[in-house]
């Protein structure tokens, strides 16, 4: 009888236990939500809510799946994975996230077997996606693990199975992109850090929607691969080749003539890459390397910023300097290149650009830079370079800021008269790596005397200046302040 009594009572006890757990869950949720909604006073005196407060249902349980997916897409990868423990509804929703950002900050480096664990996590994200498809994937793991072996599989799976729009991959090893990546018609933005991997471009490239292309440290296998890749992107707005390497057994020519291109950034130390620019709608132009050619008659009416750093090897330059023929050709070419940027608002010229322009100084005839407001220039402490700087300033009637940096190379003992002019708009001058040479002091005196609206002059000295030069420099600064009493001079 007692056994039957206990058997009959068991369902009743289970229902009571279940009701008790439900009430406890609701009460704990209400306490947590009420505590989060209350105003915070102090960490030591927190006012907990009263037990008579009205029960509040968790708001996240009542949200539609679309809103939950939007919330998840804005979180870091580690927080997206933690969302799976919030409720049964959120348990598998985290795998439907369309925007993923996997960086070194999410890497569990302090745990044993962290590399394998994180590798399996990324595989689950890529392969077992349950949503409409991954749209944005960023993987930046340059400091951890050997992920470059499996990143090729990730790229192939993403390009073949999902309508991905943005792909950004940077791991600590050479990466060779698969052929399927160059047939992904949904790609809009692509950035790959290849670490000098040999890039093989297939014969047919279908990147019809690509607008931004950035390749860092690529090495093209064939001379026409880079040009075929550029020509396939018909609506390209931004093109960046950083650390581009060529093959010494052939010359590689790049024709940049896309009418939609607005941002172009090319950085290379190779002597075998020749760049020909004819894109007329460029807004930002950055070039660091050699063998740059601007097409004949091309003007850039929408140009805002130009960074020109065409350098030379010092040993080769000294050898060619005895012959004078290559130096004159490079000087004429640089004169033509700088003249084509007359519509720029910001202009940067490296020390070698100034050196090439100084070689044709008696015949220099640059156009007026009517829109130029900021000029950054590197120069050697000689009068040839100082005159080139003053000539460009004289051709820029609306110039307001000047940044000059001194480099100690050669030809520092030249004494020639500096240009004399009056500039009405220049208000700010900053000189970096100031060595206190006679050319630099004369240049500062000439700038202060000719720029009537100058309000501030910043001079950053190098640390190796001797004491007599410092005394001479202080004397010059006192004389400069007498020329313009309202001028603020800062020396550091």
Determine the structural class based on helices, strands and strand pairing: alpha/beta
Number of helices: 12
Could you tell me the radius of gyration in angstroms?
32 Å
* Low-pLDDT stretches: 1-12, 34-57
CATH architectural label of the domain at 303-492: Alpha-Beta Horseshoe
Estimate percent helicity. 25-40%
- What's the end-to-end separation, in Å? 99 Å
Largest sheet: spatial strand order: 1-2-3-4-6-8-10-12-14-15-16-17-18-19-20
Shape: globular
CATH class label of the domain at 303-492: Alpha Beta
**Strands, total number:** 20
**What would the average pLDDT be, to the nearest integer?**
79
| Beta-strand residue fraction | 15-25%
Looking at the structure, the CATH topology of the domain at 303-492 is: Leucine-rich repeat, LRR (right-handed beta-alpha superhelix)
Q: What profile does the largest beta sheet have?
A: 15 strands, parallel
Report on this model:
It comes from Rhynchospora breviuscula. InterPro entries: F-box-like_dom_sf, F-box_dom, FBL13/AtMIF1-like, LRR_dom_sf, LRR_FXL15/At3g58940/PEG3-like. The structure is a single chain. With 492 residues, this protein is an alpha/beta fold. Among the domains are: 2-58; 303-492, Alpha-Beta Horseshoe (Leucine-rich repeat, LRR (right-handed beta-alpha superhelix)), CATH 3.80.10. 32% of the residues lie in helices and 20% in strands. The strands form 3 sheets. Strands 1-2-3-4-6-8-10-12-14-15-16-17-18-19-20 form a 15-stranded parallel beta sheet. The radius of gyration is 32 Å and the shape is globular. Residues 1-12 and 34-57 have low confidence and may be disordered.
